[in-house]
Amino acid sequence: MKSPMTTLCYIERNDSYLMMHRIKKKHDVNAGKWIGVGGHFETGESPEECLLREVKEETGLTLLSWRFRGIVTFSQEGFGTEYMCLYTADEFEGKFHDCEEGIMEWVPKSHLMELNLWEGDKIFLKLLKDEEPFFSLKLSYKEDKLVEVSLNGKELKKN
């Protein structure tokens, strides 16, 4: 059984984020979407250990500098609840390699909202852009539709 704890990282370079277009993995809840780099915790891992391992596995890169930006609670009918530790990183080394889950591409931050993103991802990407201090964001989905949003315990949207 997969851990309900995950990490997600937006690696920055030249005012762009490294984004993964999820088009390779079978039975993928993120199929067709663009997301950052990350994945599920393994037993005994800290958030930072998971972050570093997932980035290395998916990109070949070793992060040298990163910031823990917030925690995002996702709930989706039929998929349960996931708690995601959200990071940005701005220094890395290593040789980049292809990922078996999707195609990686550097996307200018100014073009992010043109991508096929989850509606809730647009919210936390804006929080990152606005340099929001550490935040807690709750996103509830019914199928692919965002039906509830709370930021730092305050409800912003409910359908």
UniProtKB/TrEMBL annotation:
This is ADP-ribose pyrophosphatase. Belongs to the Nudix hydrolase family. GO terms for molecular function: 8-oxo-7,8-dihydroguanosine triphosphate pyrophosphatase activity; metal ion binding. Residues 2-130 form the Nudix hydrolase domain. Keywords: Hydrolase, Magnesium, Metal-binding. It comes from Blautia obeum A2-162. One of its GO terms (biological process) is DNA repair. It is an enzyme of class 3 (hydrolase). Signal peptide: none annotated. Pfam families: NUDIX (PF00293). It comes from the Bacteria. Its EC number is 3.6.1.-.
